Structures are given as C-alpha cells and as structure tokens.
Amino acid sequence: MLIPKERIEDFCATLREAGQRVVFTNGCFDILHAGHVRYLEAARALGDCLVLGLNTDASVRRLKGETRPVNTELDRAAVVGALVAVDYVVLFDEPTAEMLIEKVRPAVYAKGGDYTRETLPEAKIVEKYGGEVHFIDLVPGCSTTKIIEKIHQR
Ligand SMILES: Nc1ncnc2c1ncn2[C@@H]1O[C@H](COP(=O)(O)OP(=O)(O)OP(=O)(O)O)[C@@H](O)[C@H]1O
Ligand SMILES: O=P(O)(O)O[C@@H]1O[C@H]([C@H](O)CO)[C@@H](O)[C@H](O)[C@@H]1O
C-alpha cells in the first residue's frame, strides 16, 4: 500500500501505538532482482511490518545518473508493494532517508551489507532514539546495474 508522505508520520505513530514493531528500509529498487526479494524478506522478519522508503524518479536520477531509473516511481512502488514482505511504501525525494526516518521512527532500520555504520547517515538518527540498525548479507552477483549491463551486451 502506497502511503502519501504527508500522512506517514501519523500513520506510523498509529502502528506503534497498536504495539507493532515497525521495520524500515529505503532504496531505489529500480529493476527488482532476487537479492532485493531476499533482502526485503529478511528485513520483514525483524519485526511486525515493513515500511519501505522508495526514492522518487528525480532522486534516483541524481544518485545513479540521467539514464536511471528504468522504471517510474509509481511502477517501482507497485512492484515492491506487491511483495508479501512489504507492507507499506512511501516515496521520498531527499538525498538520504534521514528526514523520513524522523517521521517513521522505526524500531529497526535495515539496510544491505553494501553499507556500514560509517557510510549510512541514517544509522546515527536511529541509534540516537534507541532504535536498532541491522545489516543484511548481500546475495552475491545480483544488482540492477548488472542486469542493465547484461541486456546491453546482447
Ligand atoms: N544483491 C543484493 N543482496 C541483498 N540486498 C541487496 C542486493 N542488492 C541490493 N540490495 C539492497 O537493496 C536495497 C536497494 O538497493 P538498490 O536499489 O541500490 O539495488 P542495486 O541492485 O544495488 O542497484 P544498482 O545496481 O542500481 O546500484 C539496498 O538497501 C541494498 O543494500
Ligand atoms: O538503493 P540504494 O542506492 O541502496 O538507496 C540509497 O540508500 C542511501 C542510503 O540510505 C545511505 O544514505 C540513501 O541515501 C539514498 O537516498 C538511497 O535510498
């Protein structure tokens, strides 16, 4: 379910008041692959519901270059939102998910093992209010960039 950004703070407060352990992650999720699916399943298993912060098209372009994303934000939201592991999707346009995390205040912040505490600015915010940060092992060989490269080689 796609939640409008202006509603996410109240929405997540209600989840917390209902006793839900909220897990949050964020990313571009442009062309979905098996690494993403296993990663999101592992993140969801850390709590009662998973909120996914999805980069807008403009922010993916700024992060990954003019040719990205391949899929629009509404299509990417529909695809990740169809996974059993993902309960709620919210779009964000800022360079990092820090502002969104201030609103969601998840009990657990999950991110792939391609990041560390030092390279993850969001980790400091979560740890400051007593939340947990979890890094999930990468599935080797899976990436959106690799899929695009393979298509170009054919
Ligand atoms: N192979 C993988 N195994 C597990 N988690 C992954 C894998 N690839 C990406 N992730 C995680 O999924 C989230 C979104 O990743 P992202 O959309 O950047 O995927 P990507 O395939 O690495 O993309 P790109 O190739 O465009 O950089 C990130 O938190 C990242 O850590
Ligand atoms: O899909 P990606 O490239 O893993 O997603 C990015 O993650 C960044 C990370 O949280 C470190 O700040 C984030 O800043 C960026 O906006 C993408 O979500």
UniProtKB/TrEMBL annotation:
It comes from Selenomonas sputigena (strain ATCC 35185 / DSM 20758 / CCUG 44933 / VPI D19B-28). Its EC number is 2.7.7.70. InterPro entries: Archaeal_FAD_synthase, Cyt_trans-like, RfaE_dom_II, Rossmann-like_a/b/a_fold. One of its GO terms (molecular function) is nucleotidyltransferase activity. GO terms for biological process: carbohydrate metabolic process. PANTHER family: BIFUNCTIONAL PROTEIN HLDE (PTHR43793:SF2), FAD SYNTHASE (PTHR43793). This is D-glycero-beta-D-manno-heptose 1-phosphate adenylyltransferase. Keywords: ATP-binding, Carbohydrate metabolism, Nucleotide-binding, Nucleotidyltransferase, Transferase. NCBIfam families: cyt_tran_rel, rfaE_dom_II. Residues 24-149 form the Cytidyltransferase-like domain. It catalyses: D-glycero-beta-D-manno-heptose 1-phosphate + ATP + H(+) = ADP-D-glycero-beta-D-manno-heptose + diphosphate. It is an enzyme of class 2 (transferase).
